[in-house]
């Protein structure tokens, strides 16, 4: 099962640190994949949930791309990842707003809380709706260490 830290969180939400590059790297070093919120603004990628807050270090994307689930927060980010895809990038990114399910660029279902069980999907925050994630390919949670 794929274990994905939500915004770098491992043992519960931490809004002050979420999406910060060092927090993301710590979750990766702890053995998790990480869903992060990505913006493209003023010619560069930025991290942050409700707005761009932090520069997105190229080294983080280059060295850990296989561990990142890139949630495009604006259409410009999606457009830029599509352009990178055309050059052969192996990034895993997606866009959604209130969709029950969306597909990532690697053709994996990203399922909103309350949709499980959905075989082969990523169960997002299953603790919110007490979802049965037993058929999922992975889990994305603020409490991901509980699923280890």
Which structural traits does this protein have?
single chain, 148 residues, alpha/beta, ten-stranded mixed β-sheet, 4 helices, globular
Q: Poorly predicted ranges (pLDDT <50, ≥5 residues)?
A: none
- How many domains make up the coordinates? 1
Largest beta-sheet characterization: 10 strands, mixed
Q: Give the helix level as a range of percent.
A: 10-25%
3D structure, described in words:
With 148 residues, the chain is of the alpha/beta class. The chain has helices at residues 21-29, 58-64, 75-86, 126-129; strands spanning 2-6, 33-41, 44-47, 54-55, 68-72, 93-95, 101-103, 109-111, 122-124, 138-141. Strands 1, 2, 3, 4, 5, 6, 7, 8, 9 and 10 form a ten-stranded mixed β-sheet that branches. A hairpin with a 2-residue loop joins strand 2 and strand 3 (44-47). The longest helix is centred in the middle third of the chain and has 12 residues, at 75-86. It is globular. The mean pLDDT is 96.
Topology:
Elements (H helix, E strand, L loop, with lengths): L1 E5 L14 H9 L3 E9 L2 E4 L6 E2 L2 H7 L3 E5 L2 H12 L6 E3 L5 E3 L5 E3 L10 E3 L1 H4 L8 E4 L7
Parallel strand pairs: 1-2, 1-10, 2-5, 5-6, 8-9, 9-10
Antiparallel strand pairs: 2-3, 3-4, 7-8
Give a brief rundown of this model.
With 148 residues, the protein is of the alpha/beta class. The protein has helices at 21-29, 58-64, 75-86, 126-129; strands at 2-6, 33-41, 44-47, 54-55, 68-72, 93-95, 101-103, 109-111, 122-124, 138-141.
């Amino acid at each position: 099962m794929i274990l994905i830290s939500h915004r770098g969180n491992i043992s519960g939400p931490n809004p002050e640190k979420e999406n910060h590059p060092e927090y993301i790297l710590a979750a990766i070093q702890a053995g998790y994949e990480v869903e992060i919120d990505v913006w493209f603004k003023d010619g560069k990628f930025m991290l942050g949930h409700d707005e761009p807050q932090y520069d997105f270090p190229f080294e983080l994307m280059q060295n850990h791309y296989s561990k990142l689930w890139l949630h495009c927060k604006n259409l410009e980010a999606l457009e830029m990842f599509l352009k990178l895809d055309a050059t052969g990038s192996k990034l895993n990114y997606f866009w959604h707003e209130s969709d029950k399910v969306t597909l990532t660029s690697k053709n994996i279902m990203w399922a909103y809380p309350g949709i499980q069980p959905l075989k082969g999907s990523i169960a997002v925050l299953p603790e919110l709706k007490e979802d049965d994630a037993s058929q999922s390919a992975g889990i994305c949670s603020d409490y991901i260490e509980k699923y280890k």
